[in-house]
Recover the amino acids of this structure.
């Protein structure tokens, strides 16, 4: 189709049927049906294919009546548009003829058509490859050198373009292996009010503003110090409270120490009882061992006697009644031996239990020593805690006393303010006010060093808006490749900006009504896993911009947790 189109375009120009001479790669060829658009080469025997480009030299020997003649030589690049290898023909078009060269060729064609010029037959000039002197070789002409330079330049340009395309291709493949591209995400609707409420921070007690830890426009977190005030009356009340706390702590310490002494006494009694148990158990073990020895000897005697009576009974020397009496004695001796062995084992267990802190009373193990030991350790720890509490309260009391002594001149300042009197604010007792909620400092109404009264506004605090979030719905397979806390990059086309995000929530829940607004690129595959992402390090301007962009699509890139080598192995299967 391309070939036919090119031929049609070329035939819009006037063609010359008289053959001209073209030099291609040091070979001379005859060209026919040539124009400023292209030409046909006959007798072509080199290896080319459609779309190839190469330089040529076009030679026109024109004759104008009499002996006047004109030679035209043009060096340029051509492109093969069709090829007939069997007939040794090809069609080509000129690529980069200059306007002057086009005008020169068109003028020659027009004059040939009008008969003003005649194209001399150059068949005699066709020859084998032209390997003449450097002066006559086409490669030595400046035009030919320019064409070769252009060809090298084009080759370098193509290599550069190919390298850039290859780089981006490898980068895309790498991203597909290590990053999960998610297009089923939107900017979530804000959960809080669009306009953040404003609240005043007031002083609870009378005093002097000591120091500010924030400034207007600064963002604060819950519990972050805002400012401090000084008041020696508070210090006095605090000292009284500390005195009461110290007295209570000392009572607790005394009670803990008494409980510790009682626990240690009970433990000592239990230890002495256990020592007695050990002695008793060892005596019972010795007695049981002696009993086993005696019963073993008696058992052996009765056994021998029974064997003797059995022999006599066989010989008829004794009666059956005598044999039965011997047999009964043997059974009685055997039973007593077994009972003695059983008592011996019980005595062994009793001795072993006593060594571990328990005593076997014949029915069960009895011992309070472990419990008494644990109680002693518990009471010792309680006593240490009570002692630490007393020491800490006394230390705080000393600090408050020192602060109260230093801040005595401040009381006179509060009663009779004067700018010439020092504030003594650096070491005076102070109360620190902290932020009750996240927000930003909208206005500071007082300066450090000014006195304040109860419920007087010191600064205005604006609550922080709910941070913008991103909602996404993934397939179960996609959800397996990410975890909570994974970093992500969020591109929001509506604001034309990328943001850093992190996965805050993964919920195996059915899609809500918001999922209908999420763009789908997954075909019919069900997106049943809800994922929420938080945006990090947002400026106030970005937050306002994203609130306005609620519901807009988001393109996410999240690092996959699957090993890259496992994914490569999966792709190669």
């Amino acid at each position: 189709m391309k070939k036919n189109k090119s031929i049609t375009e070329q035939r819009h120009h006037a063609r010359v049927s008289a053959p001209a001479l073209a030099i291609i790669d040091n070979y001379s060829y005859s060209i026919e049906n040539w124009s400023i658009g292209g030409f046909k080469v006959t007798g072509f025997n080199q290896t080319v294919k459609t779309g190839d480009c190469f330089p040529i030299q076009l030679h026109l020997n024109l004759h104008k009546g009499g002996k006047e003649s004109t030679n035209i030589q043009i060096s340029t690049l051509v492109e093969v548009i069709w090829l007939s290898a069997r007939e040794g023909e090809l069609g080509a078009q000129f690529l980069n003829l200059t306007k002057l060269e086009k005008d020169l060729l068109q003028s020659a064609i027009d004059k040939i058509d009008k008969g003003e010029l005649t194209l001399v037959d150059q068949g005699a000039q066709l020859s084998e490859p032209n390997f003449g002197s450097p002066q006559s070789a086409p490669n030595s002409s400046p035009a030919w050198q320019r064409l070769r330079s252009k060809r090298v330049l084009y080759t370098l340009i193509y290599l550069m373009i190919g390298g850039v395309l290859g780089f981006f291709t490898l980068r895309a493949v790498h991203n597909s292996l290590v990053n999960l591209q998610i297009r089923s995400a939107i900017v979530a609707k804000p959960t809080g009010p669009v306009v953040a409420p404003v609240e005043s921070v007031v002083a609870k007690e009378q005093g002097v503003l000591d120091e500010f830890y924030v400034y207007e426009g600064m963002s604060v977190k819950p519990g972050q110090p805002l400012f401090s005030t000084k008041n020696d009356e508070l210090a006095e009340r605090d000292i009284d409270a500390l005195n009461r706390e110290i007295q209570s702590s000392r009572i607790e310490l005394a009670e803990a120490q008494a409980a510790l002494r009682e626990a240690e006494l009970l433990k000592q009694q239990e230890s002495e009882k256990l020592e007695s148990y050990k002695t008793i158990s060892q005596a019972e073990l010795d007695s049981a061992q002696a009993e086993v020895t005696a019963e073993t000897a008696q058992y052996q005697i009765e056994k021998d006697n029974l064997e003797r009576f059995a022999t006599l009974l066989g010989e008829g020397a004794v009666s059956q009644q005598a044999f039965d009496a011997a047999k009964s004695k043997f059974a009685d001796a055997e039973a007593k031996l077994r009972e003695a062995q059983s008592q011996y084992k019980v005595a062994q267990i009793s001795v072993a239990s006593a060594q571990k802190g328990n005593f076997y009373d014949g029915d069960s193990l009895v011992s309070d020593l472990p419990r008494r030991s644990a109680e002693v350790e518990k009471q010792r720890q309680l006593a240490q805690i009570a002692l630490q509490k007393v020491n800490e309260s006394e230390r705080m009391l000393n600090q408050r006393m020192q602060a109260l002594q230093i801040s005595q001149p401040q009381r006179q300042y509060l009663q009779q303010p004067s700018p010439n009197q020092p504030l003594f604010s650096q070491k005076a007792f102070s109360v620190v006010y902290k932020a009750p909620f996240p927000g930003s400092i909208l206005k500071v109404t007082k300066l450090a060093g000014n006195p304040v009264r109860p419920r007087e506004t010191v600064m205005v605090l604006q609550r922080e808006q709910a941070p913008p979030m991103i909602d996404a719905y993934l397939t179960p397979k996609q959800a397996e490749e990410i975890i909570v806390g994974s970093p992500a990059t969020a591109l929001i086309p509506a604001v034309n900006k990328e943001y850093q995000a992190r996965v805050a929530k993964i919920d195996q829940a059915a899609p809500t009504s918001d999922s209908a607004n999420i763009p789908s690129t997954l075909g019919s595959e069900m997106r049943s896993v809800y994922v929420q992402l938080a945006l990090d390090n947002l400026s106030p301007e970005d937050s306002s911009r994203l609130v306005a962009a609620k519901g807009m699509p988001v393109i996410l890139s999240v690092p996959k947790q699957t090993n890259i080598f496992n994914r490569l192995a999966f792709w190669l299967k």
Observations:
- The two ends are 40 Å apart (CA to CA).
- The chain is about 45% helix and 25% strand.
- Residues 1-10, 124-141, 407-428, 520-524 have pLDDT under 50 and may be disordered.
